């Protein structure tokens, strides 16, 4: 009983939130570089405000982030010390193709990840690679309009042709697009989209999503052609919707809200647009333009496993009186009176993880992989930089217990678990450093001050013990 023998314990990061080195060794600029910390951030990531270059008076946290570009050996050694079996990271597209539309890749960028993957293997760590984690070369946005343009499929295909061949034997687990459903909530992150006055945003988002879905199917095809050992996953920002009450209207609304997210995964796992989704698009006057063999591609190249992030469940109500919302998260949710919340207003619901896992497994019967879960919290280090983060341990422990129940009691097939931000990094939604998730403290603040020194937190040894006991000793 318990987790499978080869259970992949580990942690997760994304290039733009940890690497820094934004212009090192020929790297090109990406959307994620030009999103500042501060009040304009939300408008930019949601496509309401256009920012495609560095502007005076702003601080751009991704430029240096935690400088993992130059410190990855030290960081991976620490992951190895914790006993990580896997490390989820993303490649920065613009390191490999600085503009995105070149025919030849940038060797220095390719070499960087090759060395990094080798470093992982040195420590017995299997890399799990997200091909696109919210990043898009800025040139592709300026010149082509990001993923609204079908040409992006070809550029993404070039990237895949190069990386699958170059990293054959070094990387086996791939994710095509991080949180693909995020395109609806943060389209600049999800697809390099921003909108001009009067544009039909929903139409553009769904067209861009179609391009990503086709690109994802092509990536899956190439991955399997290049190496039949490759396993490719989709990636969902998950979290079950609960009806606020048992009023049938609330229950229906919860089901519909879940479907808004499943829509993308249904295509990637089942190979077809779901009937409910097509009807909804039709009702809303959205028409997706497709090319002749798109549907065949989607049908023939479905993913091998389903990965997802889980931070919280969500709640909906049809009663206008029930309108207290939770803050922080990009997904709209009514406040759940039964749950506590984090310092950023994200609700904490370990049992919701088990519920979400069961819904996904019931729906698809394919192996699951939890590739993000964690608590963003304010850490206060002592004079030696040590953080006693019992709150983080408590959060993770409760979630691991729930996922264990999903495996042991419900029979869900789970490949692994990577906590989000295993080392402190820049927050995607707020751009802050003080929203910390890590087992490793990084000395850097919201304004970019600090030595970048790494220090193990209390949770470091706790997680080491969890991994060593394959989740028995919590
Ligand atoms: C997920 C993203 O949405 O949530 C990560 O895939 C992100 O990139 C994580 O960092 C946590 O969100 P935040 O806003 O606290 O960084």
TrEMBL record:
It is an enzyme of class 3 (hydrolase). Signal peptide: none annotated. The keyword Repeat does not apply. Transmembrane segments: none annotated. Gene3D superfamilies: Glycosidases. Pfam families: Glyco_hydro_1. One of its GO terms (cellular component) is cytosol. NCBIfam families: PRK09589.1, PRK09593.1, PRK09852.1. PANTHER family: 6-PHOSPHO-BETA-GLUCOSIDASE, GLYCOSYL HYDROLASE. This is 6-phospho-beta-glucosidase. It comes from Amphibacillus xylanus (strain ATCC 51415 / DSM 6626 / JCM 7361 / LMG 17667 / NBRC 15112 / Ep01).
């Amino acid at each position: 009983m318990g987790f499978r023998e080869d259970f992949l314990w580990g942690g997760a990061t994304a290039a733009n939130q940890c690497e820094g080195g934004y212009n090192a060794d020929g790297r090109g600029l990406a959307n994620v570089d030009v999103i500042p910390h501060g009040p304009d951030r939300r408008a930019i990531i949601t496509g309401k405000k256009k920012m495609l270059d560095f502007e005076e008076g702003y601080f751009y946290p991704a430029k240096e982030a935690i400088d993992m570009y130059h410190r990855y050996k030290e960081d991976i050694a620490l992951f190895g010390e914790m006993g990580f079996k896997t490390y989820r990271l993303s490649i920065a597209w613009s390191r490999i193709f600085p503009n995105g539309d070149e025919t030849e890749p940038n060797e220095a960028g390719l070499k960087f990840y090759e060395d990094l993957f080798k470093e992982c293997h040195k420590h017995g760590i299997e890399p799990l690679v997200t091909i696109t984690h919210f990043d898009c070369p800025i040139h592709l946005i300026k010149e082509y309009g990001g993923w609204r343009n079908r040409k992006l499929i070809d550029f993404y295909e070039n990237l895949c042709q190069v990386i699958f061949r170059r990293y054959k034997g070094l990387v086996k687990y791939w994710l095509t697009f991080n949180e693909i459903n995020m395109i609806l909530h943060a389209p600049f992150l999800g697809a390099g989209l921003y909108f001009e006055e009067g544009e039909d945003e929903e139409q553009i988002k769904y067209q861009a999503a179609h391009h990503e879905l086709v690109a994802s199917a092509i990536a899956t095809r190439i991955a399997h052609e290049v190496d039949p050992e490759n396993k490719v996953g989709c990636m969902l920002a998950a979290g079950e919707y609960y009806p606020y009450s048992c009023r049938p209207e609330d229950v229906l609304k919860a089901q519909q809200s879940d479907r808004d997210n499943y829509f993308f995964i249904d295509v990637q796992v089942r190979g077809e647009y779901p009937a409910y989704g097509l009807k909804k698009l039709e009702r809303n006057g959205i028409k997706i333009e497709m090319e002749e063999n798109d549907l065949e591609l989607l049908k023939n190249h479905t993913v091998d496993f389903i990965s997802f992030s889980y931070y919280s469940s969500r709640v909906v109500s049809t009663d206008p009186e029930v309108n207290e919302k939770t803050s922080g998260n990009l997904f709209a949710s009514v406040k759940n009176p039964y749950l506590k919340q984090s310092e950023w207003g994200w609700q904490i619901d370990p049992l919701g993880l088990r519920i979400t896992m069961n819904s996904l497994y019931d729906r698809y019967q394919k192996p699951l992989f939890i590739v993000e879960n964690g608590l963003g919290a304010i850490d206060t280090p002592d004079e030696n930089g040590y953080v006693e983060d019992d709150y983080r341990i408590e959060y993770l422990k409760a979630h691991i217990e729930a996922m264990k129940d999903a495996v042991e009691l419900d029979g869900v097939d789970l490949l692994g678990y990577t906590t989000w931000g295993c080392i402190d990094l820049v927050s995607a939604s707020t751009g802050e450093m003080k929203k910390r998730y890590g087992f490793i403290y990084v000395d850097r603040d919201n304004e970019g001050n600090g030595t970048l020194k790494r220090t193990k937190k209390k949770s470091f040894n706790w997680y080491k013990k969890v991994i060593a006991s394959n989740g028995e000793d919590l």
